[in-house]
Amino acid sequence: MSRPALPDGLSDGLSDLGIAWTAGLPSGWGTYGLNLALEARLAGVRPHLFFLPDSLPLDPARRFVLEPALRDHVRLRHLLDSHGGGAFPYPVLHALGDRLSFPPETRHLNGRPDIGVVFLEHTDIPPENLETAAGLARVITGSTFNHRALAEAGLTNLAFCPQGIDPALFHPAPRRGLFAGRFAVFAGGKLEYRKGQDITLAAFKTFARRHPEALLVTAWHNRWPASLASIANAPHSQGQPRHRPDGSLDIAGWAADNGLDPAQVLDLGELDHRLTAPILRECDAALLPSRCEGGTNLVAMEAMACGLPVILSANTGHLDLIGPERCLSLDSQIDLGQISGTPGLAGWGDSLPDEATAALENLHADPDLRHRLGTTAARFMAGWTWGAQIRRLLDALAGV
């Protein structure tokens, strides 16, 4: 198979770029990595994929574009498995963890130079992590919240480059009426304390008592047991979902345990990312009261891109999305950094369920408001495509 006829590289000389996390996993990082590789290739930069899942969610056209990188991955994996690392003559992007932790699996994988990418949630950063990050050529920050926190910590090698949306998938389009006669509220993001699903349950429970046609549409699957367990500590819900024999979470059962009518809950389970947009377009609103977002919340961005009116907590990464006439914001934020006594929660906010219920009531009562917010949101997100955002990232690497 011949290579696609694409540009030979950027004018600044960047021709190759390593991506040192698992591109293609059903997660925010996985979606980011896959779109980064694709858009880099379309811009004439050869992506090098060090980590891939066993099954890669690619249609034949995208697989065709990335075919050289997929072949090269076999060579890279053999090298890493044989030597445990290596030095590569091109920039390598590393996925920095929370509190700027450097992933152990890429510590011996060195680029020329090494670049960090971060969507941190806790701001109590150990001095040794700051020192390591300061030694990187660039640290790409995924939100203004992250950028400001790291600048205040003393880092000067920062570049703000948020994530994007795929406009081929996420855009306004006619709905099929699958939820006809219902008022469907979408709620997405892996189930954990940070994402605030307990707030969603409490707000929707009150709303649904007044509106029997209300339907909560959840995409809350969580593959990570540690973060899932954190929902048991949330103040507005009890316990956590049980696992079914097939490993899926019994979200509807958990919602029922917390006082919701099972007939008013539709759990989507672990949804294929490519199937999300048609379901979003069937919904009437989205409720996303996260206590913290290190990035700009892909779920919120994709819902907005589909023309869905969204309700967002006014904290951390959501602040980059909130604006006049493009969403409803939950402004009464309880500052968890001040009241919890837990280090690193600067910027975290607890939303009031009653305010979220009131926002749902406003959207339910006013179809014109829903249309106006959704139209403005979709127009705003049309400028946040993966193509535009990855070009912004590539431009940020021009000087390194």
From TrEMBL:
<dbReference type="GO" id="GO:0016740">
    <property type="term" value="F:transferase activity"/>
</dbReference>
<keyword id="KW-0808">Transferase</keyword>
<protein>
    <submittedName>
        <fullName>Glycosyltransferase involved in cell wall bisynthesis</fullName>
    </submittedName>
</protein>
<dbReference type="Pfam" id="PF13692">
    <property type="entry name" value="Glyco_trans_1_4"/>
</dbReference>
